[in-house]
Amino acid sequence: MAAPATHPAASLDPEDIAALLDDRPREGIFRVSRDAVREQAIFDLEMRHIFEGSWVFLGLAAQIPRPNDYFATRIGRQPVVVSRDAGGAIHCFVNSCRHRGALVCHRNAGNAKRHTCQYHGWVYDSAGRCVDVKDEKEGAYTDAFRAEDHGLQPVKLGDYRGFLFGSLNPDVPPIEEHLGDVRIMLDLLVDQSEEGLEVVPGVVRYTYNGNWKLQLENGTDPYHFTSTHPSYIQILGERGKKAAGANRTTSIYQNFNQKSVSRGAFCFRNGHAAIWGETPSSDARPLWSRIDAIRARVGETRAKWMLHTRNLTVFPNVQFAENASLQMRIWRPVAPGLTEMTTYCLGPRGEDRAARATRIRQYEEFFNPSGLATPDDTTAYEDCQSGNRTENVFDWHQGYARGLAAVQQGPDPHAAELGLNPVSSILGAFDLGDETVFHEVYRTWRDMLRKGVEKDLAAEAKAAGARP
Amino acid sequence: MSPDLSGVAAQVLYEEARRLDEQRFEDWLAMYAPEAVYWVPAWTDEGRPTADPETELSLVHCTREQLAERVARVGGGRSQASSPLPRTAHIVSNVMAQPLGADRMRVRSVATTHAFNIKRRESATAFALVEHELARAGEDWLIVRKTVQLQNDYIATMMDFYTV
After folding, report:
1. Which residues span the domain enclosing B71?
2. Would you say the pTM of this structure is higher than 0.90?
3. Cα dist. A213→A54, A217, A288, A457 in Å?
4. How close B142 gets to chain A, by Cα (Å)?
5. Mean pLDDT per 10-residue run, chain A (468 residues)?
6. CATH number at residue B68
7. Distances in whole angstroms, Cα of residue A297 to Cα of each of A186, A322, A385
8. Do A375 and B157 touch (CB under 8 A)?
9. What domains lie within chain A, and their CATH numbers?
């Protein structure tokens, strides 16, 4: 199946893409154009060359534990299904009947041995194979038709320890190579239990009127916390005062003291990034009740890192945020100024009932769009989108400069103790509010767009040369 | 179903809605008993509302103490999601009450809430199947439990106690 040689999105040339970043490390300058969040032409290129041109996160194998379990999602604009077949193998295929393109899977998740297109009745099994072309014998088909594969189109699937990724472009490096050292950060999630992770039942979906990169940045942005969330910090402070009398800890942030807490960040290859910090009150972590067994199993260093707060971005579309609880947040860009969020609470399998309830309550009040923190974030994204409206107001965003005078190339001792080899590392007081953590994200973003445009232009030139 | 009781229950629900729409949140909170539980279940990907808040996710699961925190947050001016506060209109209908002994009742209703986001100049609608458990307190009825099953759980930016 040959891709079309021309496409509608090549309105920007490689120089336009390069001009979206002002990246001069030797001069201590890193700036991002306002166009990055508002331009339809850039959004179209992001869809084509990032979300539909490389690996994106789909979900967890733990969401489909039994044979014939499935969930439906999208890669970029394209609906896909992730399905465990009758034999237990996981597949990803395009959620679109081969007959006329209708969706064959209509629910978010479920269990089905067969997926039947409701339009003309073609039937597919849980491995995506076409098992019935309705009235095939009577259909006067040719041999040429019968020689075609009628199965749902397969999507390249990557499975790293149950973290499932898909790519509509089959020409991508192996998933292990794409993830690189991020695998070590994912291991810190899986290995909290010998039985791995599970999804707490219940999904929360919401939208915000802002660009997807605003969420991507927010997840590793320590600078906003004190100014965006004072109402939440105030509530925690009041609870702390009440609990002090009762001698109990109610939140990991209860003993939150900006001066004593340090925060670090890592930039990884391929646009991945992480921030981390020591937990002010480890005993409020759901993990705390089992920490001795965890230390014995994974060692002191990794157990310590499991108790650190860690926010991890796996470029381009998922974050794992572990602080008061553990959130998996997946975003889907809908338009330059509209993003859909799909969010889940995760926990280690086998967690005791009290710890699980604590995990869920802390999750709800921190992460939910109906909670005490996230609404103030999403409202801020919308304010950003509103303030970045027209190309006639142009300047560089100045919000990528914090930490530039302190960031070091390669691993710092904290990265090294975990076996990480990041592109850059930084550590400082809580008030450092590092912003260098975004730099590799944007370099990767720019390079993927630029290479994509160059490839399309070369294909167009070749096609033009072939025409008489 | 008891028609007389349903009439009494409707007055309580209308009063609750009125206090929310007039942004009299302290007065709204006063309608809740000290042991009250306020619950908005989430939905699963398979399409059922979650049933056990201890093992499954909720959109909101609050004690009265935590509702009081929310009221303080909304009124405190330090939450940009709550400032300026959306204007709302709560429409309560299909009220059906069942007695649970002499001093308690379970009330089912349907609620449509319109919320106007002043900053964005946009309106959103939430519609829900609601269940209240009311307990007599002298002349009044207090809310001891409210469960809001949000039927359109595809949330535009944010939700809070005053938008459902």
Report:
1. 3-150
2. yes
3. 17, 6, 34, 26
4. 24
5. 46 92 94 94 97 98 98 97 98 98 96 97 98 97 97 98 98 98 98 96 98 98 95 92 70 55 92 92 83 95 95 98 93 98 97 94 97 97 91 86 96 97 95 96 98 94 84
6. 3.10.450.50
7. 17, 20, 46
8. yes
9. 56-160 (2.102.10.10), 180-449 (3.90.380.10)
